[in-house]
């Protein structure tokens, strides 16, 4: 059983004052360590300039139980911190996940070279691994990589992990800079217009990639999504997430990704990768209708689709600073045209009898702005894909949709549409209806409508 142990910050006091300040933490922490016995430990540690050796040594005594560890430090010589009083480094036989946050971790990865179970590595606002790290770290063990780059050369870091299966990249635009003569290095932002990279990095085992884009006005002329997609070849990719990175300032429209959708780059990417996408998530991203249609044509094996649009009353994208990208206009994905595009019967004549888009779609999850959402068009699309009869499904050339989740931001789904969806649950369709109200100083209200359970309860009371 895992134990979420603690998270603490070291105050910037003099040594004597510092020891007195943290003494109240020592006893409960020691008690937690004793009571947890041999349980694996999950630890988050925030370290400042002044570090208590007593506290660190207390943790190092249990290093053989560390399983999921996060270190956050910006001013410390980190390798010295994780060295025992006898000068030796501890072993980490249970360590599976390791996260570094900050700029103080040069030569730190090598300290964990004997962690035989280590498979997940996260580096946030850090630096590219040192030569010692590159030489000593068992990179072949790393199957999951989470990068929030500072001065990290992302493509080079990916190349270090030959068995990588999962990749997450955050705040992409802050770290593109063309290498002299190559145009294919990721590093610090440049004011120059970078050339398309010529080297395609092949990551053979990667099955899932998540890309979180931040594109403030001053960086809008650098299309980081295009640059990234043009660099990679991912033959095993099945799950893809692309989102605007709005976690820190969700109401700031200038943090919305403003680059053009990488339509041509995605087409070339899928052609050279030959991958089969079964899961696609698009979150708070502007994609024109024609580009979205082209993307769906490239992903005919899609089984699960998740789309989350912005609520414009919270994040007013009409106020995006027009600096380098004066032509930017945010286009919601979940438009009436989008819903009609997914409607099965609308494709028989329009596409000269070709199969509908995403014919294998079985699960759809939509979070839409209530001011722009067409409830009836959504219901019509769901009904068109509800084909419990195998003969009917075969005739249409689509799989029967199995699960539908809809969240309408700012209001509730129309009652007539909710009632119609409840009727479909009686035939086996899984339906979840959510609503989120926000505005002013309201904290928000979330309502979940488990239609299947509601029907079960009503039946049992009869």
UniProtKB/TrEMBL annotation:
Source organism superkingdom: Eukaryota
Compositionally biased spans, kind Acidic residues: 451-462
Descriptive protein name: F-box domain-containing protein
Chain residue ranges for the region called Disordered: 440-462
């Amino acid at each position: 059983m895992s134990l979420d142990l603690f998270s603490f910050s070291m105050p910037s006091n003099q040594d004597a004052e510092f020891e007195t300040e943290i003494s109240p933490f020592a006893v409960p922490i020691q008690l937690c360590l004793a009571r947890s016995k041999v349980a694996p430990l999950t630890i988050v540690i925030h370290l400042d300039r002044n570090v208590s050796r007593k506290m660190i040594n207390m943790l190092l005594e249990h290093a053989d139980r560390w399983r999921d560890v996060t270190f956050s430090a910006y001013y410390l010589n980190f390798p010295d911190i994780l060295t025992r009083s006898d000068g030796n480094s501890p072993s980490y036989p249970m360590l599976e996940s390791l996260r570094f946050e900050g700029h103080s971790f040069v030569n730190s990865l090598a300290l964990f070279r004997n962690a035989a179970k280590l498979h997940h590595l996260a580096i946030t606002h850090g630096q590219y691994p040192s030569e010692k790290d590159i030489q000593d770290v068992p990179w072949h063990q790393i199957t999951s990589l989470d990068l929030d780059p500072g001065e990290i050369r992302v493509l080079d870091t990916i190349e270090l992990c030959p068995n990588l299966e999962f990749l997450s990249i955050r705040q992409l635009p802050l770290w593109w800079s063309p290498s002299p003569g190559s145009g294919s290095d990721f590093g610090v932002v440049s004011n120059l217009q970078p050339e398309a990279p010529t080297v395609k990095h092949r990551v053979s085992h990667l099955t899932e990639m998540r890309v979180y884009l931040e594109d403030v006005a001053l960086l809008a002329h650098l299309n980081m999504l295009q640059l990234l997609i043009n660099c990679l070849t991912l033959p095993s990719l099945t799950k893809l997430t692309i989102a605007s990175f709005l976690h820190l300032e969700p109401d700031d429209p200038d943090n919305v990704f403003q680059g053009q959708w990488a339509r041509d780059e995605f087409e070339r990417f899928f052609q050279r990768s030959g991958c089969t996408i079964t899961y696609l998530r698009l979150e708070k991203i502007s994609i024109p209708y024609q580009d979205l249609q082209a993307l769906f044509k490239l992903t005919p094996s899609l089984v699960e689709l998740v789309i989350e649009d912005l609520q414009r009353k919270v994040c007013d994208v009409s106020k995006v600073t027009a600096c380098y990208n004066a032509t930017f206009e945010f286009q919601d994905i979940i438009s009436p045209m989008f819903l009609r595009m997914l409607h099965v019967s609308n494709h028989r004549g329009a596409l000269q009898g070709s199969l509908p888009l995403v014919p294998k779609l079985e699960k759809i999850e939509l979070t839409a702005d209530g001011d722009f959402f067409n409830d009836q068009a959504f219901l019509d699309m769901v009904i068109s894909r509800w084909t419990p009869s195998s003969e009917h499904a075969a005739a249409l050339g689509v799989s029967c949709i199995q699960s539908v989740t809809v969240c309408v931001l700012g209001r509730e789904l129309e009652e007539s549409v909710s009632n119609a969806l409840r009727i479909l649950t009686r035939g086996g369709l899984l339906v979840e209806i959510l609503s989120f109200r926000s505005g002013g100083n309201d904290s928000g209200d979330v309502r979940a409508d488990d239609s299947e359970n509601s029907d079960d309860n009503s039946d049992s009371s009869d």
